[in-house]
Design goal:
This protein folds into three domains: 177 residues, ABC transporter type 1, transmembrane domain (ABC transporter transmembrane region fold); 114 residues; 259 residues, P-loop containing nucleotide triphosphate hydrolases (Rossmann fold, 3-Layer(aba) Sandwich), CATH 3.40.50. By secondary structure, it is an alpha/beta fold. Helices cover 62% and strands 10% of the residues. The strands form three sheets. A six-stranded mixed beta sheet has the order 6-9-10-3-11-12, with helices on both faces. β11 and β12 form a beta hairpin. It has 23 helices and twelve strands. It binds adenosine-5'-triphosphate and magnesium ion. The site of adenosine-5'-triphosphate has 12 residues, from α13. Magnesium ion binds next to α13.
C-alpha cells in the first residue's frame, strides 16, 4: 500500500564519479548560468566581508579620534556595500535555483518519454507508486544538490578561508582563542544534521504511507461502506497517522535543540571575544574597532560551518536518487522496433484488392513470467484469420483470450512461436505501423478525462468534428451524446466514471470506428446492459466489423452466431474450430457449452434474437466424449 519502500531510502556513497559524469550531460547546457552564479557568489562574499572592516575603520579612525570628516562618506559606503550584497544575493540564489530547475525539467521530460517506451511486462513488475516517486521525489532531491550543494560548498569554503585570514591579520591571538570553539561547533552540526535528515526521511516515508492508504480507501469507498469496514480502517489509519505525528515531533525536537545549541555557541564566542579581547583593549594591545569587527566576523563565520555540515548528507541523498533515476533510464524495453524494418506493404493497392490483414498464430506459447516454471498461459496456439474474415474466440474466464489479443498488438512477445500479419512476422514490423493497422476495443472501456469528442478522436487529434459525429452516429452513440447538457463537449471524468457502462461501450466503438483500422480486435465486455442498449450495441458492432478483418473475443451469443468461424480456447489450447452450425453438429465442447449457457432445447437462430440471454459467459468443460 505504501508508495515508498525501505530500499527507496537506502543511502550510499556521497560521490560517485560515474553518476556525476552522467549528470554532467544535463548540467553542461547550463554552464553560462552556473558561471554567472559563481561570479555573483564572489560579489556577495566580498560585500559581506567588507562590512565589518568598514565598521572597524569607522570606530578606530573616526569615532575614537573625534574625526567627523569622512563619517558621512563611510556610512554611505557601508549602506551601498550592503545594498550590493542584497542585490547580488538575490540574483545568485535565483540563478542557482534556475540552473537546478532547468536540469530537473530536462531530466523529468527524459524520464517521462522513457516510461512511454517501456513495455507492459515492465509495468506488471513495477507498481505505479514507485514509478511516480522516481519522477517526482527522486528528481526533487536533485534540486537540493543545486540549492545547497556544489556552489554553496565552494562559496562557504572560500568564505571560511577568507574570514580565518582576515581574523588572523587583524589579531592573531584573539583569532586563536575564537577558533577553539570551531571543532565543537562542527561536530555538533554533523551530529544534528544526521539526526534531522534521518527524522525527515522517516516523516516522508510515513506521508507516503498515509497517501497510499488514503488513495486505496477513497477509490474503494464503496466497498468499505458496503462491507462496513469503516471502524477497522479508521483504526488502521489512526495507527499510521499516529506514527507520522511522532516522526514529525522527533524532527521538531532535533531542529529546535540544534538551533538553540548554535545560538549558545555563538553567544559563547561573543563572550570569549569580549572577555579576552576586552582585556587586550585595557592593556592597549587591541583597538576597540578591531574588537567590534571580530564580533561581526565571527557572526558570519558560524553560518557556513553549519551549512557545510549538511553538505555530505545532501550529496548522499542526491547520489542515491541519481542511481535510481539512471537505473530506470537504463531499462531497455523488452518490446522494441526491429533493427531493420520489413519493407512496407504498399497501402494504396490495398483498397483495390479488398480487405487485407491475414493474421497467423503459429504454435504460440506464452507466459507472463517466463522465468518461473508452470506459469505458461498459452500452450502452442495456432490459427489463421483470413482477410475480411470475422473470427470469434470463446472460452472460460482466464482461458487466455485477452492474452491472445495483447500478443497480437505486441504488448508482450510470445515465448515461443510466431505471429504474422500478411505473412510478415510482427516482430519485424515497426511498432507504430503495426498498431496503426490494428484497432482495438478493450474489455474495460478505457476512457480518459477530457471531452466526449476528445475521447472519440483519441487516436487522431486532427479529426474534424463532422468525422467524430459521423462515427458516433454510425454506432448509435450520437443520440445520447446529444442529450448531454454540453453535447460532444460534455466532460468525461477519469476512467469515464460519470458514464454508464453501455455509453462507455458505444463511445469506445465510435473511437475504434473513427480510427478506421484495417483489422479490428474486440474484447467484448462481460458486464450486462439493458435490452434496448444491447440491441443498439449489437447493431453498432455489425457496422463496426463490416469490411474489416476482425477477431472478436465474444461473450454475446449474437456475435458468436454472426462470426464466420469460432475458435474454442480452453486452458490456453485451441480445442475446437468451426462455424456455429458445424460445432453444434460435432456435439463436442462447444455444443455442450451452448446447451448449458444459452439455449437448452432451442434453435440457435431464435436464441440469437433473444438478447436478454446473450450475456452469459462461455464456460467450456471437458469434452464429454
Ligand atoms: N499481467 C498479467 N500478469 C500475470 N498474469 C496475468 C496477467 N494478465 C493475465 N494473467 C493471467 O493469465 C491468464 C489468462 O488471462 P486472460 O486475461 O487472457 O483471460 P481471459 O480469457 O481474457 O479471461 P476473461 O474472459 O475473464 O476476460 C489468467 O490466469 C490470468 O491470471
Ligand atoms: Mg479477457
Amino acid at each position: 500500500m505504501s508508495t515508498a519502500r525501505p530500499e527507496d531510502e537506502v543511502l550510499g556513497k556521497a560521490y560517485d564519479a560515474r553518476l556525476a559524469r552522467r549528470l554532467y550531460e544535463y548540467v553542461a547546457p547550463q554552464s553560462r548560468l552556473i558561471a554567472l552564479s559563481l561570479a555573483l557568489m564572489l560579489t556577495v562574499m566580498a560585500a559581506q566581508l567588507a562590512q565589518p572592516y568598514l565598521i572597524k575603520v569607522l570606530i578606530d579612525d573616526h569615532i575614537l579620534k573625534h574625526e567627523a570628516r569622512g563619517l558621512t562618506a563611510l556610512a554611505t559606503l557601508y549602506l551601498l556595500v550592503f545594498a550590493v550584497e542584497m542585490a547580488a544575493r538575490y540574483a545568485q540564489l535565483y540563478s542557482m535555483e534556475r540552473t537546478g530547475q532547468n536540469v530537473i525539467q530536462a531530466l523529468r521530460n527524459r524520464l517521462f518519454a522513457h516510461l512511454q517506451g517501456l513495455d507492459s511486462a515492465f509495468f506488471d513488475r513495477h507498481p505505479v507508486g514507485r514509478l511516480m516517486t522516481r519522477v517526482t521525489t527522486d528528481i526533487e532531491s536533485l534540486a537540493d544538490l543545486f540549492s545547497s550543494g556544489v556552489v554553496s560548498l565552494l562559496g562557504d569554503s572560500l568564505k571560511l578561508v577568507a574570514i580565518v585570514a582576515i581574523l588572523w591579520w587583524l589579531d592573531a591571538r584573539l583569532a586563536l582563542v575564537t577558533f577553539t570553539l570551531v571543532p565543537a561547533l562542527f561536530l555538533l552540526s554533523v551530529f544534528y544534521r544526521g539526526r534531522i535528515r534521518g527524522a525527515y526521511r522517516d516523516v516522508r516515508r510515513r506521508i507516503a504511507r498515509i497517501n497510499g492508504y488514503l488513495q486505496e480507501e477513497i477509490s474503494g469507498m464503496l466497498l468499505v461502506q458496503l462491507f462496513r469496514r469503516e471502524g477497522e480502517d479508521r483504526r488502521e489509519f489512526d495507527a499510521i497517522n499516529r506514527g507520522h505525528r511522532d516522526a514529525e515531533l522527533r524532527s521538531v525536537v532535533y531542529e529546535s535543540s540544534f538551533s538553540a545549541i548554535i545560538e549558545l555557541i555563538g553567544t559563547l564566542a561573543t563572550a570569549l571575544i569580549l572577555w579576552y579581547g576586552g582585556g587586550r583593549i585595557v592593556t592597549g594591545a587591541l583597538t576597540f574597532g578591531t574588537l567590534v569587527a571580530f564580533i561581526e566576523y565571527t557572526g558570519r563565520f558560524f553560518g557556513p560551518i553549519r551549512d557545510l555540515s549538511s553538505f555530505y548528507a545532501v550529496m548522499q541523498a542526491a547520489m542515491a536518487s541519481l542511481e535510481r533515476i539512471f537505473s530506470l533510464l537504463d531499462t531497455r524495453p523488452a518490446i522494441q522496433d526491429p533493427a531493420a524494418a520489413a519493407p512496407p506493404l504498399s497501402p494504396p493497392a490495398a483498397a483495390e484488392r479488398g480487405p487485407r490483414g491475414l493474421i497467423e498464430f503459429d504454435r504460440v506459447h506464452f507466459s507472463y513470467r517466463p522465468q518461473e516454471a508452470g506459469t505458461e498461459i498459452l500452450h502452442g496456439v495456432s490459427f489463421r484469420v483470413r482477410p475480411g474474415e470475422k473470427v470469434a474466440v470463446v472460452g472460460a474466464t482466464g482461458a487466455g483470450k485477452t492474452t491472445l489479443v495483447k500478443l497480437l498488438i505486441r504488448l508482450y512477445d510470445p515465448t515461443e512461436g510466431a505471429i504474422r500479419l500478411d505473412g510478415v512476422a510482427i516482430r519485424e514490423l515497426p511498432l507504430r505501423a503495426l498498431r496503426r493497422r490494428i484497432g482495438m476495443v478493450l474489455q474495460d472501456h478505457f476512457l480518459i478525462s477530457g471531452t466526449v469528442a476528445g475521447n472519440i478522436a483519441f487516436g487522431d487529434l486532427s479529426l474534424p468534428a463532422e468525422s467524430i459525429e459521423e462515427a458516433a452516429r454510425l454506432v448509435h452513440a450520437d443520440d445520447f451524446i446529444r442529450r448531454f447538457p454540453a453535447g460532444y463537449a460534455e466532460s468525461v471524468r477519469e476512467r469515464g466514471s460519470n458514464l454508464s457502462v453501455g455509453q462507455k461501450q458505444l463511445i469506445s466503438f465510435a473511437r475504434a470506428l473513427a480510427y478506421d483500422p484495417e483489422i479490428l480486435i474486440l474484447d467484448e465486455a462481460t458486464s450486462s446492459v439493458d435490452t434496448e442498449t444491447e440491441i443498439l450495441i449489437q447493431d453498432a458492432l455489425q457496422r463496426l466489423l463490416r469490411g474489416r478483418t476482425s477477431l472478436v473475443i465474444a461473450h454475446r451469443l449474437s456475435t458468436i452466431v454472426g462470426a464466420d468461424r469460432i475458435l474454442v480456447l480452453h486452458h490456453g489450447r485451441l480445442i475446437e474450430e468451426g462455424t456455429h452450425r458445424e460445432l453444434l453438429a460435432r456435439r463436442g465442447a462447444y455444443a455442450r457449452l451452448y446447451r448449458l449457457q444459452f439455449a437448452p432445447g432451442e434453435e440457435p437462430e431464435r436464441s440469437a434474437a433473444a438478447p436478454e440471454r446473450s450475456e452469459a459467459g462461455f464456460i467450456p468443460g471437458p469434452d464429454p466424449a
